[in-house]
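Filed under: proteins

Residues; backbone shape codes:
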Amino acid sequence: MTKLMKRLCALALIVLVCFAAWILGRSDHSIADGSQIFSKVVAIRDAVPSNASDLQVQSSAASWVSGCAEIPGSRAGWTTDQVSVMFIDTSPRATVIAKIDGALKRRSWQRHDAKPRPSEGRLPHWTLDVKSAHVVQAWAFPVGHGTHHWYFSASWNPPGPRGQGCP
């Protein structure tokens, strides 16, 4: 084998190793593990207090959608992982939040209460690091003043372009 051939083989090996490292490093910031992330989003259902009633769950996994020709500016991209849980719990607000908080913390969620709008009060808000460009976010609040009807939701936006498909 000539000196030139040895150098080309060495260069090819370096390129191959770099490409493999790039692929492995990139997988933490892609949709490659999307089904595992979706299972973590849907798992908020397990954080609903055990005494809750009239449980209603809706969920949808992220998927790739094509742009919509009927909507100007529409583009292809990812939809969002989403789960919404509605339930009734007659316990005091602080008790419901504490039960949800305890269940989520056992699953490594972090609480960061926040104001969605400056004119509103603070709402219970949690995040879960899923080794992606985005964290999973969850919110819980009663629907209507003085009501026992609760809305609890979680979502995750895959990295990459946001899709806007046809309605």
About this structure: Residues 20-30 have pLDDT under 50 and may be disordered. Residues 31-156 form one domain. The longest strand covers residues 53-60. The two ends are 62 Å apart (CA to CA).
